[in-house]
Amino acid sequence: MAGPPYVKFYASEWDADTLDLSALEDGVYFRIMKYIWKTAKIPTEERLPRITGLTAEEWAQVRDRVACFFRISDGCWHHDRAEADIAEVFEVIAKKSKGGKASALARKAKREVAKKRVRTPDSTEVLTYVETDEQTSDVTGALTIREENIKEENRKSDNTTSLVAAPLSARWIPNKTTLKLLASDHNINAPFALGLVAEFKLYWLDRKEPRTADEWQETFVRWACKVRDENGGTNGL
Fold first, then answer.
1. 71-109 pLDDT, tens digit each
2. Which residues of 163-193 are buried (b: 16+ CB within 10 A; e: fewer)?
3. What is the rounded average pLDDT of the residues 25-48?
């Protein structure tokens, strides 16, 4: 594999360690180190003449002087400090990359247009809206409510006496009073509330629990508040 994009190099320490080396020996040592830094590989003894650019005879003359800086094992020239420095750099890069990806995903989630469609069990589309703005939680995209559906459901709901208890209707929807109450008293806007209708009905339709029309509206208010709190206060406003 390729080596790291950078390495730590302390010139004063290098000079102190190589003070008694000749210019040739210093250059040979540095070439071996550059090979390790650039490739992140451990050189073998048989490759060292080629790595350093020396003939076999020239290499034989400087080999022992340079070897004292390495740990030689099974024909491989290890440099423990260089290997540790390379591993440290790769670890730093990996952490930054992970943090950068997480940050990018968070920014993308804020910018990304999220389209939600709420459908009744008979596949009638009730709501389509687009939300998101990186700077504000307001709904800034297009809000399109199928007015004929909403008005029809509100009319049916308003005409239902609050004294008659019955299981939740498959075509139930929160009325305008409930939506206004959620916005004014609980800071939950209409798109957010309507986005909870499908899950609310899925939960209560199976239970077939009888409640009056007013009680179902109150139940939905509590449901919306609970979801808002579970989302850490995210409520669309």
1. 999 999 999 999 998 999 888 888 888 877 777 777 776
2. eeeeebbebbbbbeebbebbbeebebbbbbb
3. 94
